[in-house]
Specification:
The complex is a heterodimer of chains A (555) and B (328). Chain A is an all-alpha fold. Chain A has helices at 2-5, 8-18, 21-40, 53-73, 76-79, 81-88, 90-95, 101-121, 124-132, 138-164, 170-185, 190-195, 201-210, 214-221, 238-258, 281-290, 307-315, 321-349, 351-374, 379-384, 386-391, 397-417, 420-429, 434-461, 465-488, 496-503, 507-514, 528-552. Helix content of chain A is 72%, strand content 0%. In chain A, α17 crosses α22 (397-417) and α19 runs parallel beside α24. Chain B has 2 domains: 5-225, Rossmann fold; 230-302, Alpha-Beta Plaits (2-Layer Sandwich). In chain B, the strands form 3 sheets. Chain B has a 6-stranded mixed β-sheet with strand order 6-7-8-3-9-10, sandwiched between helices. A 5-stranded antiparallel β-sheet of chain B has the order 14-11-13-12-15, with helices on one face. In chain B, strands 2-1-4-5 form a 4-stranded antiparallel β-sheet, with helices on one face. In chain B, α3 packs across α4 (111-124) and α4 (111-124) crosses α5 (140-152). The chains are: A mainly alpha (555), B alpha/beta (328).
């Protein structure tokens, strides 16, 4: 501890973060969100609810809002911390100082953790207002909620630093951190959906995996059981198990990051550019079996197609052709597995529930994939200096941008198509679902286009890919997950009209409503949701065109 | 063909609000010549280049390349000019050949012709051996050569390179210099900016010195030297530092009123700039010997491009900050 008190990195990290414009923006946004969440459901009449149900409604909205806000903003802060220093050369200076790797890590961890905890402190006035209304336990609800969130913050800061020590650029670190956190928070909930209420080793394992997610813990504290609990009553230990697992994971990530903080972080040779075409026949055959599109094969020249479109597939930092093909294959496999579950468990689950899960999985795919492929479309060019070179070619701005947009749309489209077999099986089981499936697929198409256009527009606003990626994730999570949080608070605290108004901007919600997933049946969102997402996409395209005109204009 | 002006700049001015980045710049460059554009940071070099390649619009004045207006005929300019900015502009996961193929396709060169052209530009820039390497993994010197290969793809008449020798090691600088001369030998007209003045001194036919947005000197190297070396620089190497003051007084008297005497006790030298003729220098030697000043050398210091550059871009007090200067 004495080492950390005297640690100069803490002060530099903390002061650096607190004084940045980004931090100010986040603080203002969060403070406004917390106040808004409480005000939304603050009683306006003179009656007092003796049961405390009203205040618990307010607390629920606040709790979910707090969790979402933190999931949205926290990964952005630790993710670039180490990789940025490495690329600037200041990490080498730190290694050359008397500071040990442990001291460097502690400095960074405490600096970032203190800052993100300050974001949590910003919510205290709002939660105090909830408490003042009565009906909420200081420890049983508020204390446990804040303890879970603090543990989550520590864990995600450790995850962010772990990834930061293993990536080559801040934007890659940002992207992978967001993906990992979505994985830890949301994907860990999925296995248990299929085994809840059952016994045996796999069921127990899935139950524990669920406890890695802070979403499950917060839902339990806020009295919602768990995601897709199908009315099963939980044993009330999820939050405690999260509080047990989270520090273990934090320590694991911290230890493995510290072990990385040495010369090895710089010890990378330059690629010599091996080409498969120049390898022996056996190597060629082996690689041919492993790769459908070998990234080390000498590529043919670009044909008549838009060269920017081809370039994007070959060079983008995430989503190069061979990875996209792997992802499409994985989607097809998962989709078929879901179809299998549908056939064996259709009596228990119902085809509509399976359809709902598939829509959610596709939402996750869109959220994971789109910012990674689209948020760098313009920002990366500007950051690398490529934009000036493109401007010096005869390619028009329209051709450049359309090549880029099509590369993103084709990628997302291909991945979503990979999930089609599951829907086909659904139709095969229940032919009456054909119309709904068609509506769902159209809704998902709108979702993909909205996500791409929003990310591309965001990309045109920034000079740095990392900032564009973080912002795109934030906006898309707000559109696709934030509106579902409002739906979670349907009936209480939000009324039907409020929930419907929120869901209208989310085409994924429209897909769920079309599939008549439990809880979405009352909402008739098609075609209005299509119009809204189409309008938003168009607005983003117009915004993108304006920005491209601005940045292409001679100064 | 030589003698025909390919690049014409007339009264080019660029203002950003109150700030004047470029003030009434006029220059011409003939076909197959190399113009060196030198000046300190903020002198207006990059602004000039950006206007020439159509990335910036002048507040007033005209710039033309091969008759095409750099402001209004940007499409033509893109075909006429190969521009290498100071930032390389690399793409990840892209090999050198793919990088050139992409830009060749962007310039609308057909695939079969493009492959041939890529081979040619790799050959010209001695980069063939690195065609399978990833561009982001290349050393700075290699990247500069690939950058030049990129500018040659569409066979432009004019090449504009912003700081091509910046950050290169001595061997790479020599190679870069040879490459630039080779390009000029191929009939290309070049504008090259640099802070590394000896590079320009060796390869440029004409030099333009910019400072504070204005043109301070322009012409061939000999013309610039003549402009700034009307007064010759004499230096005396003394045997003892004790006699620096005595020698400075004699040199000041010899050079006349208003002359500037620079003394360095650590180097045991005294310098003075004088317009007196060479056949009068024996008087100075006689006076020094008569005063008992012992010296090992009395010589003229040759002014090079660096001195010319400093004399027009920096106040003398700054240039002589490390030395004691006396104005007589």
């Amino acid at each position: 501890m004495s080492e950390s008190v005297a640690n100069p990195i803490i002060q530099r990290e903390l002061v650096g973060l607190v004084t940045s414009r980004r931090a100010l923006g986040v603080q203002i946004a969060l403070a406004a969100t917390f106040v808004g969440l409480v005000m939304l459901r603050w009683p306006t009449d003179a009656r007092v609810g003796l049961s405390g149900a009203r205040s618990f409604d307010v607390f629920r909205v606040f709790g979910y809002g707090l969790l979402t806000s933190l999931l949205l903003f926290v990964p952005a802060f630790p993710a670039a911390s180490i990789v940025k220093e490495r690329n600037k050369g200041t990490l080498a200076l730190l290694f050359n100082s008397p500071l040990s790797p442990l001291a460097i890590y502690i400095g960074k961890f405490i600096g970032v953790f203190t800052f993100v905890s300050m974001l949590l402190i910003l919510s205290l006035p709002a939660v105090a207002a909830c408490y003042a209304m009565g009906g909420i336990g200081l420890w049983s609800e508020i204390g446990r909620l804040y303890l879970v969130l603090l543990a989550m913050l520590a864990q995600y800061v450790a995850v962010g630093l772990w990834i930061s020590a293993r990536t080559g650029s801040p934007d890659a670190a940002m992207r992978i951190t967001y993906l990992t956190i979505v994985g830890l928070a949301a994907v860990t909930l999925i296995p248990n959906l299929f085994y809840q209420g059952q016994t045996g080793l796999i069921a127990t394992l899935c139950d524990w995996v669920r406890c890695v997610s802070p979403i499950a813990a917060v839902m339990e504290i806020l009295g919602h059981g768990s995601v897709g609990s199908q009315g099963l009553i939980g044993d009330g230990t999820i939050a405690y198990r999260f509080l047990l697992l989270s520090p273990i994971l934090t320590l694991f990530f911290a230890a493995t990051t510290i072990s990385r903080l040495n010369y090895r972080i710089f010890d990378r040779s330059r690629s010599q550019g091996r080409i498969t075409d120049d390898q022996s026949t056996s190597v060629k055959v082996a690689r041919g079996m492993f790769y459908l599109v070998d990234p080390q094969r000498r590529k043919a020249g670009i044909g008549l197609i838009n060269p920017v479109f081809v370039k994007e597939f070959r060079t983008r930092r995430f989503g190069r052709m061979h990875w996209i093909l792997r992802l499409v294959s994985l989607c097809a496999v998962v989709s078929v597995l879901l179809a299998f579950v549908t056939t064996v468990q259709s009596e228990v689950w119902g085809a509509r529930t399976i359809g709902g899960i598939m829509v959610l999985l596709q939402l996750l795919l869109v959220l994971l994939l789109v910012p990674s492929t689209s948020a760098g479309l313009i920002a990366t060019e500007r950051e690398s200096g490529g934009w000036v070179l493109l401007q010096m070619t005869p390619l028009s701005s329209l051709r450049i941008v359309s090549g880029k947009l099509w590369s993103a749309i084709v990628t997302v489209g291909a991945v979503l198509l990979g999930t089609l077999p599951g829907y086909l099986v659904l139709i095969w089981i229940n032919p009456d679902l054909e119309y709904e499936v068609r509506q769902v697929l159209i809704s998902l198409g709108f979702a993909a286009i909205l996500a791409v256009t929003v990310s591309a527009f965001v990309s045109s606003l920034f000079r740095r890919t990392a900032a564009a990626t973080a912002t795109a994730y934030g906006v898309l999570i707000a559109i696709f997950i934030g509106t579902l949080l409002v739906w979670l608070g349907r009936d209480a605290p939000f009324g039907f009209a409020t929930v419907r108004a929120a869901l209208i901007i989310n085409p994924v919600a429209a897909a769920m409503a079309e599939m008549k997933v439990a809880g979405f049946e009352p909402y008739d969102l098609v075609p209005i949701a299509w119009w809204v997402s189409g309008g938003l996409s168009l607005a983003c395209l117009v915004g993108l065109a304006v920005r491209i005109a601005q940045i292409s204009r001679p100064s | 063909m030589s003698g025909e002006a390919v690049i014409e700049i007339e009264n080019l001015t660029k203002r950003y609000g109150e700030f004047v980045a470029l003030q009434s710049l006029s220059l011409t460059v003939e076909r197959g010549r190399i113009l060196g554009l030198i000046g300190p940071n903020g002198a207006g070099k990059t602004t000039t280049i950006k206007i020439l390649v159509g990335l910036s619009r002048p507040t007033s004045g005209v710039a033309r390349i091969a008759g095409a207006d750099c402001t209004n005929d940007v499409r033509k300019i893109k075909r006429l000019v190969g521009y290498m900015p100071d930032k390389f502009g690399s793409y990840e996961n892209m090999r050198v050949r793919e990088y050139l193929d992409f830009f060749g396709a962007a310039f609308g060169i057909r695939r079969s012709a493009r492959n041939k052209r890529i081979d040619e530009v790799l050959e010209i820039t001695d980069s063939t051996y690195m065609q399978d390497r990833y561009v982001e993994s290349l050393s700075h010197g290699m990247q500069q050569r690939v950058g030049i290969a990129r500018t040659l793809l569409h066979d432009p008449e004019v090449l504009i390179f912003d700081e091509p020798a910046n950050g290169l090691d001595p061997k790479a600088r020599v190679e870069m210099r040879e490459l630039l001369l080779r390009l000029a030998g191929m009939g290309k007209t070049l504008i090259v900016t640099s802070h590394i003045l000896p590079e320009l001194a060796r390869i440029c036919d004409r030099v333009a010195i910019l400072s504070g947005g204005g043109l301070r000197a322009a012409g061939t190297l000999a013309e610039i030297m003549k402009t700034v070396t009307q007064a010759r620089l004499l230096e005396i190497q003394l045997n003892s530092a004790d006699q620096v003051d005595a020698a400075a007084a004699i040199l000041g008297e010899f050079a006349g009123p208003g002359s500037e005497v620079v003394r360095s006790e650590s180097e045991r030298t005294v310098q003075v700039r004088t317009s007196r003729r060479e056949d009068e220098w024996h008087e100075l030697a006689s006076k020094l010997i008569g005063a008992g000043v012992r010296f090992s050398q009395l010589r003229e210091i040759q002014t090079d491009l660096e001195d010319a550059y400093l004399s027009v871009t920096e106040p003398s007090s700054k240039a002589d900050a490390k030395r004691s200067v006396t104005h007589v």
